[in-house]
Amino acid sequence: MLDYVTSYLHSDTTPGQAGNLLWALIYIMLIFLGLSVAVIAMNWLERKILAHMQVRLGPMRVGPHGLLQPIADALKLLIKEDIMPAEADPWVFWMAPILVVITAFTVFIVVPFGPTHAVTDMNIGVLFMLGVSSLSVLGIVMAGWASNSHYPLMGALRSSAQMVSYEIAMGLAVVSAVLMTSLNQTGTGTLSMIGIVQAQQAQHVWFVFKFFPLGLIAFGIFAIAMVAETNRAPFDLPEAESELTAGFHTEYSGFRWSLFFLAEYSAMIAVSSIAVTLWLGGWMRPFPTWLSGETWDLVFSLIPGLSFLLLAAIAFLGVIRMPKHPYFRVQTIGLAGFGAVLGLIGLILFVPPVRDRIQDIFWFSAKVAFSMYMYIWYRGTFPRYRFDQLMRVGWKVLLPLGIGVLILTAVAGVWL
Amino acid sequence: MQPIATTFFFYFLSALTVLSGVLVITRKNPVHSALALIVALLAQAALYLMLYAPFVAGVQIILYAGGIMVLFLFVIMLVNIEQSQREEQFNKQWIIGLASAIALGALFVFVFAKSKSLFPDRGISMPEGSNTQQVAVLLYGNYMFAFEIASLLLLVAIIGAVVMAKKRI
Predict the structure, then answer these.
(1) Considering only CB atoms, which chain A residues are within 8 Å of B66?
(2) B140: number of CA atoms within 13 Å, CB side?
(3) Backbone angles phi and psi of B91, in degrees to 5
């Protein structure tokens, strides 16, 4: 038994490939936990960042700087009454949120957080991610139809039209990145997520900068299409508040609504991790060849700990700036405790064995976090597209551009 | 890695495919039929995975379950379902249907009984890793001409659809 547990520790593959069921389950649990924490953090960050962009304060009441607001919201959603419309189709209404959540979480089994830090590595990794995340539109369509109400149905119709059209541009961008993997020494390309990052490692270049500007354009197409795929502003027509109340989830409440919320955010993280894997070098640290050598390795390995210490410092700055009124005492102590926890995590990340193992996961998460910040930034700055504009961008701009980039990448790959 | 519980998964997925296939033709509500069809297609994709054909499975999920069925649902949602449910089925061809189903079943049973002599007794030895590459080599190497002709046919179909849909060109 103990042998079975420890046997994986010395292997250099993912638990799925090593065939170790126990470690695969542990990885799944860890990813599920990390995702849940990430969704909670995103909920708070999105409201705070949007508020600061609009010169507001955002949530300030529950906990210091509103830090406990997501937990309060989750509790509120769990104890709310779960309403089902009288004329709704019960089976489909019941299945839709479950389907959306399952698809949003399933894709994470191939996301490579490091060379061995993935649940498994599939031969068809990218294809699997695109396919399973394209199933989520079925859940949205089912939700909109089963509600038996006008606004959800219109939201679902918009959503299916939008997703089907942007999937094509997205696929073309992905294919041009996959083409780039075939230019390494062995000459065969790969669809596996780990293989794609290893190809970037072997070619000493992130695919954004490969065949400049072809990689950059493909990445741009994907970055636009992924916002449309996840129904986020400025492409949030399926749930446009000002036109359709809440779009496809108008009739959902309580726990089922929170499932849609969870699925939306984890789908955002999923497509961001596709983008990071395909173009931004996956788990590699910045400048792996330009700033190479022992010293630079050491400097970059200190960054995870330092960034947590920076967060702790910001928390303590907040403690100092708290009003010195007895009314705020509990909040001040809470914020100081939060800062202390962050600082402790930062100090643990300086311990050499931890430091070496956490590297890939940190850089991957940092790149995904940057992409998530871009999502919030888009939402804060762009007005919503009109539906005909949306279709025009998808079919008349992104699709021809994608085909052009694909052909030029193939030509460049053959000649260069 | 050795496959686990292959027999169980094969029978489970086959039963799922057959059951949802039956649901597709027995449900009166077209949306329920379409959803059952999606389940059948996904179970089929899993069966492809068990045959060491991951690429075919992935394409099955993306194209059929994720693309075509979404368009199916898109159209069905626009139909007034209460009315279509009350309508009597107008093509009464169940005798022919039954006959062809029995014929097909008999063919399957025949092939299954004769399988030892029809197919060479050879286990599948294809490694999982090379399936995508082999499909690509076949499509873009050996059968390049047929593949391109098929894509040309699809292009003609697209142009035809545009011509029929557009009133003024």
Answers:
(1) 131, 134-135, 137-138, 167
(2) 6
(3) -105, 105
* Predicted ipTM of the assembly: 0.80
Could you tell me which chain B residue has the CA closest to the CA of A187? B133
- Identify the pLDDT of residue A187: 59
Tokens matching residue B146: 């047929």
Interval B31-48 mean pLDDT: 89
How far A68 CA lies from chain B's nearest CA (Å)?
38
Single out the residue of A119, A101, A100 nearest to residue A31, CA to CA.
A119
The nearest CA of chain B is from the CA of A7 a distance in Å of 15
What is the length of chain A? 416
Confidence band of A310 (pLDDT split at 50, 70, 90): very high
Q: Does the CB of B57 have a partner CB in chain A at under 8 Å?
A: yes
The SS3 of residue A392 is helix
**Cross-chain residue pair A164–B132, CB shorter than 8 Å:** no
Per-residue pLDDT, averaged over A311-319, amounts to 89
Burial class (CB in 10 A: 0-12, 13-18, 19+), A240: buried
Task: Work out the minimum CA distance from A46 to partner chain B, whole angstroms.
Answer: 30
- pLDDT above 90 (res B106): yes
The values of phi and psi at residue B138, to 5°, are -65, -45
**Cα A32-A35-A41 angle, rounded to 5 deg:** 145
Q: What is the number of domains present in chain B?
A: 2
Q: Which residues of B are less than 8 Å from A141 in CB distance?
A: 70, 73-74, 77
Between CA A304 and CA A312, with CA A310 as vertex, the angle to 5 degrees is 105
Instruction: Report if residue B104 sits inside a domain.
Output: no
In a domain, residue B95? The reply is no
Residue A330 counted as domain residue: no
Which residue among B59, B67, B128 places its CB closest to the CB of A123? B128
Calculate ∠ Cα A362-A281-A292, nearest 5°.
80
Looking at B46, B65, B82, the residue that finishes a domain is B82
Burial (CB < 10 A; 0-12, 13-18, 19+), residue A334, is: middle
Of A258, A294, A320, give the one whose Cα is nearest residue A73. Answer: A258
| Each residue's pLDDT tens digit, A105-118 | 988 888 888 888 88
pLDDT at B17: 93
Which B positions 68-97 lie with beta carbon below 8 A of chain A?
A: 69-71, 73-74, 77-78
- Do the Cβ atoms of A124 and B58 come within 8 Å? yes
Identify which of A18, A19, A132 has the shortest CB distance to residue B61: A132
* B77: containing domain: 1-82
Residue B121 counted as domain residue: no
B62 to A145: CB separation less than 8 angstroms, yes or no: no
Asked if the C-beta of B155 comes within 8 angstroms of chain A's C-beta atoms, the answer is no
